[in-house]
Amino acid sequence: MDRRKLMIQGVAALAVPSLPKGYVFGEKSLEISGAGSLRSHARHAHLLSGSAVRVDDLQSNSEYARLVSEQCDIVVAHNEMKWVALRPKRETFDFHWGDLLVQFARKNKMRMRGHTLAWHESVPEWIREDENRKNARELFVNHITTVCRHFAGHIHSWDVVNEAILPKDGEPGGMRKSFWYENVGTDYIDLAFRTAHSADPKAKLTYNDYGVEYENAEDAERRERVLELVQGMRQRGVPIHAVGIQSHIKAEKAGGFGKGLADYLASLQALGLEVYLTELDVNEDDIASNDVSIRDTEIAQVYADFLRVALGNPAVKAVLTWDITDRFTWLNNGPTHKKKQPERPQRALPFDRDFKPKQAFFAMRDSFDARHQKKTR
Ligand code: XIL
């Protein structure tokens, strides 16, 4: 077993009550707020540390709001800035929840990401009606312009287009046959970026996708397609500034992280793009054991393994988990993510249901420190 593994797995007997079982702390600080927070360790490594949040959770749970404000330098809305949330009707824009998040971020001196202006899973029903579908291009441009103008000045980066690549759909360039692709036009990605840039010239415009993390053929293919896409955009002079790697990773998944991911990062860097890890979490449905400390140890190891490769490239500027506590992980929302363990809530995130740090928290913090040490050596 290598040293890195030992650090995470550790010896349960050494644990003190405030530390998660199984973690060797050595000289590590047990303080998890202030200088001990994820955001403080991330800053040393020239990273923004952040989380997705649901605004009603921030409002109804002050302990949660405090945790987010203490750990994060950047936040993003789970759903509140998607089409379905912002556009209940063709005529109306509902900015209520998005504006509350802007207020929360300002009050706590955090940055904010915008998510997302075009995603196949957030298409309001009304736009599918014949009359509107015919005008999809105009509605698309109008939506992006209005939304980007509205939030301009508050957005660090927009996920302009989310999950546009699905090679099995058989389209040129591996494009997904989404509502936007089929109704706005096959150039909808360029159009979205150009429109967003005119409406908010300061926001960093990001293409965000999943399924690019692992050393397997499917992920390798998506990496290639994304690279072709963003390279083409650069050549055409389309304003794109960053690529998001969603980072929904899994415990017990074969393949692991390595050269494929490292080369992908290097190619993005060579194109002059920044990279954000936008939705990090570890789906642990495949872990057979019900023992919490065994599960938490394995989950932390997956965080460490992934971040070791992902943070190896200086183009990576931000790490956001998809929420920060197991209490609010989307992985418990539906049966699709709990096929193997339908009765077992997922422990996918750095804090548990009661907002206590788990081994994954320390693995993240150590991974930030390792990048910092590499830089300063
Ligand atoms: C998820 C939200 O977390 C859930 O609350 C919602 O029910 C579905 O969407 N990739 C993305 C995110 O880009 O927008 C998704 O968020 C998770 C997968």
Brief summary:
With about 375 residues, this protein is α/β, with parallel strands linked by helices.
Biggest sheet character:
8 strands, parallel, barrel
CATH C-level class: Alpha Beta
Strand order of the largest sheet: 1-2-3-4-5-6-8-9
Number of helices: 15
Instruction: Give the overall form.
Output: globular
CATH superfamily: Glycosidases
Q: How confident is the prediction overall: mean pLDDT?
A: 92
Distance between the termini: 25 Å
Which residue ranges are poorly predicted, with pLDDT under 50 across at least 5 consecutive positions?
A: 1-17
H-E order? HHEHHEHHEHHHEHHEHEEHEHEH
Give the number of domains.
Answer: 1
Structural class category: alpha/beta
Helix content: 40-55%
Number of E-type strands:
9
Query: And the CATH topology?
Result: TIM Barrel
What is the strand content? 5-15%
Small-molecule components bound: (3S,4R)-3-hydroxy-2-oxopiperidin-4-yl beta-D-xylopyranoside
Q: What secondary-structure arrangement, pairings included, does this model have?
A:
Blueprint: H1 3-9, H2 38-44, E1 48-53, H3 55-60, H4 62-71, E2 74-77, H5 83-86, H6 96-107, E3 111-119, H7 125-128, H8 130-134, H9 136-151, E4 157-162, H10 179-183, H11 188-199, E5 204-209, H12 217-235, E6 242-245, E7 248-250, H13 259-270, E8 274-283, H14 292-310, E9 316-321, H15 359-376
Parallel strand pairs: 1-2, 1-9, 2-3, 3-4, 4-5, 5-6, 6-8, 7-8, 8-9
The structure holds (3S,4R)-3-hydroxy-2-oxopiperidin-4-yl beta-D-xylopyranoside.
